[in-house]
Protein: Helix-turn-helix domain-containing protein
Amino acid sequence: MPGIERYVQDCTYNPAVGSHYPETHNYIREDNTSGISILQRKPLQLAQSETSMPTISGKRIRQGRINKDLTIVEVAAQIGISPTALSYIEGNKNTASLPTLRKLSDILGLPISYLGCFEDLPERTLGELIRKARIYQGMQINETASLFCVDTKTITNWENDRRKPMNKKMNQIKQFIIILQTN
Structure:
C-alpha cells in the first residue's frame, strides 16, 4: 500500500470525505495499487492520557459512560433527554444543567463535582463557598432556598456577597459547606 493516512478526530476537517467529524472514530484512507481510495471508519481507541482525568466536563461524562459500557442512547433515555442533546453535552457544545448532572451522577456513579469540573470554582469568600457547595450537591438556587427556609433572592445575595447570612443560619451553612472538605 502506498500510504495510510490516519485522521484522529478532534473535530478536525477530514479531507477524504470533505466534512467535520466528532472525536468518536478514526478515519483511515488506504490507497491501493489501482488508484482507488478506500475510507474505513473505526471506533476511536482512547489513549492512556485520555483515560487518566479529563479536564473538560463533556469528556468526563463521555469517559464515565464508556467506562460503564453504556451507549449515548441508553444514558439519554435514562436521564430523559435526547441522544442528540447528550452528544452535544459530551462534545462540549452544550453545558449540562445541574438536574441533568445529578441524573448523570446517579447513572455513572461519579460525583457531580467531577462531572461538572467544579473543583476549580473559587472559595475565597463565604458566598463563593456557599455557591460551590450548592453546585457540588447539584442543587439549584430554589432548592437551596427551601433547605435554608429563605427566598431565592437571599441565596443569590449570599452567593454574590451582597449580604451575610444571619448568625442563626451559620451552623446550618457550616453543615452545608462541609461537603467541600470531603471532596
User: Anything to note?
Assistant: Confidence is low (pLDDT under 50) at residues 1-27, 41-52. The CA atoms of residues 58 and 90 lie 4 Å apart. The radius of gyration is 22 Å.
